[in-house]
Amino acid sequence: MAKTTFISWNVNGIRAVEKKEALKWIDEHNVDFLGLQEIKAEASQIPETIFERTYTVENINSSIKKGQSGVALYTDKEGTFTCTCPTVDILNEGRINEYHFDNIAYFNVYFPNGQRNEERLEYKMEFYERFLKHINALKAAGKSIIVCGDVNTAHTAIDLARPKANEKTSGFLPMEREWMDKLLDAGYIDTFRHVHGKEATERYSWWSYRAGARTRNVGWRIDYFFVSDDLKDKIISADILDQVLGSDHCPIELNLDI
Questions:
Q1: Closest C-alpha among 28, 233, 22 to residue 36
Q2: 102 a known binding residue?
Q3: Residue 136 annotated as lining a ligand binding site
Q4: How confident is the model over 101-129, as pLDDT tens digits?
């Protein structure tokens, strides 16, 4: 078995995480693909001391809005195509790393948050649709697909601690959840649910900084690894690394036999 390990983490500011030395654990793990979201920095601002390991590929996609959004991809796997996906991220907010290796299209994505106002919610839904159209086209062309990142939506009631109280909150609105249904219906697998099933409750990846939410585990599962259904039999494990601190999100992990 050729295990390939993928890690996804919304670090909520890579410079803040570096000050906490919260990425040093990467040095002790055999991580083949590291996808970070919401780095809030340009490439020149990312400290060289975030971890000691040196990856041969460092793909940084920063937002044109300084100090906001941004994604970073680290890997040693030689790829044939790297893109910031401008047809999806039309506002150049630094939301996507697209990286092709072997016959796989891998995406590290920081999906928009829709809670600010109605306009941003509309943009989030448009982003969702553009992204799904993009990966579907690649899938139709014969590519296997891996998507990781902060999707900013909890899919079902077991994916957040207080579903009733958040029925009218962006991140758990019917139309946002319906898009996730649409994603799965299009032939993509929520790897965590595939491995753990619906019995895995109270497993979250984001907690508000307010009111001790993490200590009380009042959280949301909004960070995901999705794979196209042709990779279903390649899934070894998928988990939420909720013991790792340093951000309001925790990392998630996927292991594939590829």
A1: 22
A2: no
A3: no
A4: 999 999 999 999 998 899 999 999 999 99
In angstroms, the Cα distances linking 5 to 72, 88, 134, 237, 241 are 16, 26, 25, 9, 13
Q: What are the catalytic residues?
A: 110, 150, 249
106 with 99: CB under 8 angstroms?
A: yes
Over residues 177-186, the mean pLDDT reads 98
Interval 26-46: pLDDT, tens: 999 999 999 999 999 999 999
Residues 6+ apart with CB under 8 A from 246: 11, 17, 20, 22, 23
CATH number at residue 13: 3.60.10.10
pLDDT digits (tens, 9 = 90+) for 62-91: 999 999 999 999 999 999 999 999 999 999
Q: Exposure string (b/e) for 95-122, b if CB count within 10 Å is 16 or more?
A: bbbbbebeebbbbbbbbbbbeeeeeebe
Residue 248, exposed/middle/buried by CB under 10 A (0-12, 13-18, 19+)?
Answer: middle
Helices then strands, each counted (H, E), the chain: 4, 14
Is residue 150 marked as binding? yes
Q: How many independent structural domains does the chain possess? A: 1
Q: Is the pTM of this model over 0.85?
A: yes
Q: Is the pLDDT reported for residue 1 higher than 90?
A: no
